[in-house]
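From the methods appendix. Each design record in this collection lists the tokenized structure first, followed by the designed amino acid sequence. Records were kept in a plain field format so they could be parsed without special tools. The example shown here is representative of the layout used throughout.

RECORD:
FOLD TOKENS (283 positions):
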């Protein structure tokens, strides 16, 4: 339930990013509001659980690297939803676990067996189905940003895996959110717009949804194994489709659904193989 609720929050977040883009709000201004108002639920969570002492760190460089990679993924995702239908951008984001598996070999020196490589190959076939391998469509700026966002998300997952041995979750979330707010604020001299009251309210809700979504993801992992909760990430497409239908009267394309199903199946199989690998006794 926590993971499904988190996916609903993230779908709402990206839907509001698209609405803000249509209202003329620049992406980096959106980035600022997404992270600045996410501090409210995050601060409440830290205060009621570990306390602010958890923010002390001896690895600022690791947090900076995680923030740089993660913000690349977030900006890519925001740009994708501003150029693509919401359901298509959401479906393409499901390719992140495929990139994570591929990147874990050079970055984490992990051994990836033939089963997982086969699943990655099948998953990329699903991506090709979604983007319809036509030169004109593959050059679509929205598709390019969606794939950049997926690679950035994969890189963020890898950096979190690297630093989570010494850094607790609330600390990682706090410094990433801080970096996002600073990066968004730094774009102020380069053309922000003054939002009207309604747009401002949407931006505030967007930030709150982002913060609550992050906390729900954290809580889901705390109370249940990754193998139990991770497959429910794909429910985000259901919420995104509902949001898109209500706001834009938009239905997902059949090829988008077919490709998303292929990518989801390959992602779940990769998770299954990863679980088996971790349970095998080490020599």
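DESIGN:
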């Amino acid at each position: 339930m926590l993971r499904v609720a988190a996916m609903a929050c993230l779908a709402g977040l990206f839907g509001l990013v698209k609405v803000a883009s249509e209202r003329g709000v620049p992406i980096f201004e959106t980035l600022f509001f997404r992270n600045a108002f996410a501090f409210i639920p995050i601060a409440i969570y830290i205060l009621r659980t570990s306390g602010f002492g958890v923010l002390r760190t001896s690895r600022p460089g690791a947090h900076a690297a995680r923030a740089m990679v993660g913000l690349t993924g977030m900006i890519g995702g925001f740009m994708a939803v501003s150029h693509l239908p919401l359901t298509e951008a959401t479906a393409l984001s499901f390719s992140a676990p495929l990139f994570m598996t591929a990147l874990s070999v050079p970055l984490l020196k992990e051994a990836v067996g033939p089963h997982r490589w086969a699943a990655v190959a099948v998953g990329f076939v699903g991506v090709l189905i979604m983007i319809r391998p036509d030169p004109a469509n593959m050059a679509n700026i929205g598709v390019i940003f969606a794939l950049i966002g997926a690679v950035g998300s994969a890189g963020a997952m890898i950096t979190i895996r690297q630093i989570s041995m010494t850094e607790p979750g609330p600390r990682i979330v706090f410094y990433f959110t801080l970096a996002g707010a600073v990066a968004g604020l730094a774009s102020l001299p380069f053309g922000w717009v003054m939002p009207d009251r309604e747009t401002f309210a949407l931006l505030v809700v967007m930030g709150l949804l982002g913060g609550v979504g992050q906390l729900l993801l954290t809580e889901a992992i705390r109370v249940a194994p990754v193998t139990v909760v991770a497959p429910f990430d794909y429910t985000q497409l259901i919420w995104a489709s509902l949001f898109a239908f209500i706001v834009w009267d938009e239905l997902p394309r059949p090829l988008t659904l077919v490709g998303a199903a292929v990518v989801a199946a390959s992602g779940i199989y990769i998770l299954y193989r990863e679980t088996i690998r971790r349970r095998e006794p080490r020599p």
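APPENDIX NOTE: The chain has a mean pLDDT of 87.
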